[in-house]
Amino acid sequence: MSASILIVEDEEPIQILLSYNFEAEGYRVRATAQGEEVARLVNEERPDLIVLDWMLPGISGIEVCRLLRTRPETRDIPIIMLTARGEENERVRGLATGADDYLVKPFSVPELLARVRTILRRANPDAVAEVLKAGDIALDRRARRVTRSKRDIELSPTEFRLLEHLMQNPGRVYSRSQLLDAVWGRDIYVDERTVDVHVGRLRKSLQRGRESDPIRTVRSMGYAFDERFGAA
Ligand code: CA
């Protein structure tokens, strides 16, 4: 089962951005703007990780963190704290109260996703697969290595991330703009055609001779890793 993430963030655009990106990565997501809601949501279902904003109306993120750490049943839930720039002292306090990691706003979404993956892997190795496999293709996240039928496939870092993203959710169709956000990051302006160029290169690298194409182009929608790939 996919890992579940609880987002506690009162700034709506950030909450939406995070929910969207975590869902695209295949996580189950719940979100709230209220620190007061956290205890109830955690009781309802224990999340595998909490992304917690520092500045919340009412009870603050740091207070939420402290409360979670005092209860034995929630003590071990990994927490990533979000802080605003200029709260460096508070940041240190945040870590002291037991957050596992922190990011200063504005942060890059791919960076946050990478940190979440690292923490989840540490906390629960089964929640994040080290090696994604489909048919004769294997993608090793830790070694940053891709093989097909045991031969090494040379990919650029962008193509690696693109393949990783698609392989995480076989069958799920991603639009070009979703892929841009997830692979290139929101801060960088890249034309949507860039996605087509990189998918083209990725296909070329992955296929030799009569090998089948693992990537499906969905007309006027985008791309997906073919869920039937390797099934035959
Ligand atoms: Ca806030």
Q: What is this structure's SSE topology?
A:
Elements: E1 4-8, H1 12-24, E2 28-32, H2 38-44, E3 49-53, H3 61-70, E4 79-83, H4 88-96, E5 101-104, H5 109-123, E6 131-134, E7 137-140, E8 145-148, E9 151-153, H6 157-168, H7 176-184, H8 193-206, E10 215-218, E11 222-225
Parallel strand pairs: 1-2, 1-3, 3-4, 4-5
Antiparallel strand pairs: 6-7, 7-8, 8-9, 10-11
Helix pairs in contact: 6-7, 6-8
Summary of the model, kept short:
With 232 residues, this protein is α/β, with parallel strands linked by helices.
Report on the architecture of this protein.
The chain is α/β, with parallel strands linked by helices and 232 residues long. It folds into two domains: 4-127, Response regulator (Rossmann fold), CATH 3.40.50.2300; 129-225, Arc Repressor Mutant, subunit A (Orthogonal Bundle), CATH 1.10.10.10. It is 38% helix and 20% strand. The protein is built from eight helices and eleven strands. It has helices spanning 12-24, 38-44, 61-70, 88-96, 109-123, 157-168, 176-184, 193-206, and strands at residues 4-8, 28-32, 49-53, 79-83, 101-104, 131-134, 137-140, 145-148, 151-153, 215-218, 222-225. The strands form three sheets. A five-stranded parallel sheet has the order 2-1-3-4-5, with helices on both faces. Strand 7 (137-140) and strand 8 form a beta hairpin. The longest helix is centred in the middle third of the chain and has 15 residues, at 109-123. The mean pLDDT is 89. The site of calcium ion (CA) has 5 residues, from loops. The site of calcium ion has 5 residues, from loops.
